Amino acid sequence: MIAGGCLCGAVRYELRGASTSVTYCHCSMCRRWHGHLGAYAAVDRADFVLTEQRCLKWYVSSPTVRRGFCAECGSSLFFDQADLPKIAFCVGTLDEPTNLQSKAHIFVASKGDYYAVADDGLLRFDDSP
């Protein structure tokens, strides 16, 4: 089990099963939401447990996607696409050690013009794989 939460502690969660490796999303929506690229992993919905949610809010960013954040401190926390069996979480919100590995960059074609994507040997996709 691994736990995580927002900056102020008003939202906490636990992952009670194995998660995917980390994917870095460079799309314009994630960049606006995070202030830079998004770093996500995902876990089966049954293995995701909210243990504190007094300030959890959801923003519907597209017809099938909602993004969870803390209404108190503003931390970006979750990416929930209704038609997928897993829920994604922002890996920067996990307590360490995470023991996660990175696997891919997605939406590289729409990355910001202010940075370069390093040649780090990870999979790369111009859009969604």
TrEMBL record:
Sorted UniProt keywords: Lyase, Metal-binding, Zinc
Superkingdom: Bacteria
Any one GO MF annotation of this record: carbon-sulfur lyase activity
Signal peptide region: none
Alphabetical list of PROSITE patterns matching this protein: CENP_V_GFA
Domain CENP-V/GFA: 2-116
Pfam families in the record: GFA
InterPro entries tied to this protein: CENP-V/GFA (IPR006913), Mss4-like_sf (IPR011057)
Family of this protein: Belongs to the Gfa family.
Protein name, as recorded: Gfa-like protein
